[in-house]
Amino acid sequence: MFQGETAITVDDKGRLAIPTAYRELVARICDNHLVSAYNPFEQGCLWLFPASAWEQVRDQVNALPSVKAVHRALQMKLVGAAAALELDSAGRVLLPASQRAAAGIEKRAVLLGMGNKFELWSEQAHVAKIRQTIGEDEISADMSALRL
């Protein structure tokens, strides 16, 4: 579905333009409706889901027993902080100021197509993450099976 890396600019009002290569797809699969949420695993990153994909994630996360603190934290970051976004006529979405601030997303950011969702990274966090290498001791059995 979504794939690729795009450097983007966030305007002074907090709007970003969805790259034209994705606009038709976003219009077709989710009627121009996205949902933004915190990436609970990586600092400096927001997740942008098509509304239909988001509903599945939301329901799975909400089904977790809230008696565990880690479940409540995941529910807070994904469901509690989720924001509905709609593309305007120029193909832009307005990101909540609280999400931009928490993720450190300012003027320059990077949008990654990650299959079923986008990841929106602050430029600094993206550069830091890309510069990290995967060490041999971090390779999982699933990764070992890949033919790269």
TrEMBL record:
The keyword DNA damage does not apply. The keyword Transcription regulation applies. Residues 5-53, 82-125 form the SpoVT-AbrB domain. Its main location: cytoplasm. It is found in: Cytoplasm, Nucleoid. Keywords: Cell cycle, Cell division, Cytoplasm, DNA-binding, Repeat, Transcription, Transcription regulation. GO terms for cellular component: cytoplasm; nucleoid. It comes from the Bacteria. One of its GO terms (biological process) is negative regulation of DNA-templated transcription initiation. One of its GO terms (molecular function) is DNA-binding transcription factor activity. PANTHER family: TRANSCRIPTIONAL REGULATOR MRAZ. Forms oligomers. NCBIfam families: division/cell wall cluster transcriptional repressor MraZ (TIGR00242). Belongs to the MraZ family. This is Transcriptional regulator MraZ. The gene is mraZ.
